Amino acid sequence: MLIDFPDQCLSKMMLKSLALILSHESEKVINYFEAAIFQPPQMQMEQFIPWNDDLDEFVFPSHTSVISRDLLVGELKS
Questions:
Q1: Could you tell me if 40 and 8 are in contact, meaning their C-beta atoms sit under 8 angstroms apart?
Q2: Which of 2, 9, 16, 69 is the most exposed place for a label (fewest CB within 10 A)?
């Protein structure tokens, strides 16, 4: 059921069956969850952000899981 849909995230309907699916300890199930990472289309695009050489890393709270280039550049400027 899972093998043909590696780009799909879990639905609410599947959540009720997730414990049963995982309890089988099937190699196919384990391989699916090791390889399947959901990324929205925007997060699959490369984004080039001007980076200040003084920064090693940059952490900021965000109100959304989809971070646009404009949001990131705005946060870096402030």
A1: no
A2: 16
Residue 34 in this model has a pLDDT that exceeds 80: no
This prediction's pTM? 0.37
Position 54 pLDDT exceeds 80: yes
Would you say how long the chain is, in residues?
78
Residue 17: how many other CB atoms lie within 10 Å: 11
Of 45, 53, 52, give the one whose Cα is nearest residue 76.
52
**CA atoms of 49 and 60, how far apart (whole Å):** 15
The distance from CA 23 to its chain's CA centroid, rounded to whole angstroms, is 24
Angle, alpha carbons 57-63-66 (nearest 5°):
75
